[in-house]
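Run log, item B.
One chain of 262 residues. Sequence copied directly from the ordering sheet:
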Amino acid sequence: MQKALQEFVRLIEIIERLTAPDGCPWDREQTPETVKKYILEEAYELVEAIDSGESEEVCEEIGDLFFMLLFLAHMYQREGQFEIHQCLGKSAQKMIRRHPHIFGETTVSGTDEVVANWQAIKAEESKKKGRKHSALGNLPKAMPALQRAFRLGERASRVGFDWLRAEDVWEKFDEEQQELKKAMQSSDKDAIKEEMGDLLFTLANMARLLDINPEEALQHSSSKFVKRFHNMEEQASSAKVDLADLDQDSLEDLWNKAKEKK
């Protein structure tokens, strides 16, 4: 714990030095708005490191994300909005408040009761702040769309608004598919966009009922596509041709050969 505190203080001192009047010009120019993209980027890199199973990579990416969060907090502290210790204090208070079965007298029989208590406590917190509480919560719109759809379906299911089985979603999928085809025939861009969204939302919830995270599934398929496409490029390069110069049948042949490779 002592080492963790020492490194925490050291990181804050580095940030203070970087943002000092004679510090790094780039760091001094940053604002909360400009660093949002870097925070998201570091979060995605951390997720990728976790997927890789390389603990050293995970360790490094946690550090990078931690730095960006402290960097952001320092900006607000510099403007007199709040101090870093207040962020940590609010998080600690919230975790204690939402775990009464650990830090209080509440008893639970399992995970389901823990989740139910968590939701009830969040609802009470929203009420005290004068906010409208919803079982859907306040999932940020900046979340990846498939992940947000997955989480919305998950939360709606907590109050019983859900399909019973993944197989039951097929009927809804067929319905959305037909509506998309109809919209495509009309050439109405707005209608096509809406129906495409409905179809993707339905698929995200089918994945949830199959206990599959749709965001992870799509990432896996995208990575698989990248590998196969790179193999197509390698095949074309070996034959001294450009992919753009090949006809559809030749491209399909290269793709099938790439699929055969493991």
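Observations after the first pass:
- The CA atoms of residues 186 and 192 lie 9 Å apart.
- The chain has four domains: 2-96, 98-128, 145-212, 217-260.
Flagged for discussion on Thursday.
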